Amino acid sequence: MLLVVRSLGFALLALTGYVAVEHGWLELISDQVQLASYLNHNGLSGLIMVCLAGGLFTGIGGPRQLLAFALGFALGGVQGVVTSTLAAAIGATGCFWVARWLLRDVLSTRFGHRMHSFNKLFHEQSLLKILMVRLLPVGSNLLTNLVAGCSSIRFLPFLAGSTLGYLPQMLVFALAGAGMGQANRYQLAVSALLFILASVIGAYLYQKQRNQSLAQPVSDPS
C-alpha cells in the first residue's frame, strides 16, 4: 500500500511539473529580457523568487545552462554564476529527496540489479565521481538526480560534487549571457575556453577512474 501511495505521489509531482511547463509558468526563467526587467522591478524579493523558480525549472529537467545564460544577461557574470548555481543546487536537492522518499522502493523492486551496480560504483569517492559526471557535457541532469536519490549515496557528497561540477558550465554560460548583454566579445571567448577546459577535466577524471577500475584485480571464483 505504501508503495502505491509513493508512486501516486511521484506521478502527481510529475504532472504538476508538466502543467507548469505546458502553461508557461516558467517562461520567465528562459527569457533573459523579461527576467532582467522582473529583477530590476522586484529587487531582493524578486531575486529570491527567481532562484526558487530556477530550482524548480532545473529540478524538473530544464537545462541549467539556459538558466545561467539568462541570469548572466540579467545580473552580470559573477552574480549570474552564483544565482544560477544556487538554483541548480536547489533543484538537484529537491529532485534527490523526491526520488529517495517516493521512488527508491519502486526502482529497487523493479531494477534491483542495476541499482546495486550504481551503488557499487559510487560507494567510494562519491564526491569525486559525482563531480566527474557533472563536468562531462553529456548525460541528463534530471536522470542523475533521480538515480542518485534512489541509490544509497549520501546526500552531502552528492550535493558538494554536484555544486562544484555545476560551476564551470554555469560560469561558461553566465559569462556568455553577460557578454551578449554587454556586447563583450572577450567574455564570450573566455566562456568558450572554460567550456572546453571543463570538458577536458571531466574526460580526464572519467579516464582516470576507468583505468583504476581496470587495474583492480579480479577475484578468482574458484
Give the helices and strands, then pairings.
Layout: H1 2-22, H2 27-30, H3 32-59, H4 64-75, H5 77-110, H6 112-122, H7 126-135, H8 141-150, H9 155-182, H10 185-215
Features:
mainly alpha; 10 helices; disordered C terminus; VTT_dom; cell membrane; TMEM64
Give a brief rundown of this model.
With 222 residues, the protein is mostly helical. It has helices at residues 2-22, 27-30, 32-59, 64-75, 77-110, 112-122, 126-135, 141-150, 155-182, 185-215.
Radius of gyration: 19 Å
First CA to last CA: what distance? 43 Å
Shape field: flat
Structural class category: mainly alpha
- Helical residue percent band: over 70%
What is the chain-wise order of helices and strands?
HHHHHHHHHH
Beta-strand content bin: under 5%
Number of domains: 1
Multimerization state: single chain
Low-confidence stretches: 218-222
Number of strands: 0
Q: What does the largest sheet look like?
A: none
Average residue pLDDT: 79
Q: Care to describe what's here?
A:
The chain is mainly alpha-helical. It has one domain (2-215). The protein has ten helices and no strands. Helix 3 runs parallel beside helix 5 (77-110) and helix 9 (155-182) packs antiparallel against helix 10 (185-215). It is flat, with a radius of gyration of 19 Å.
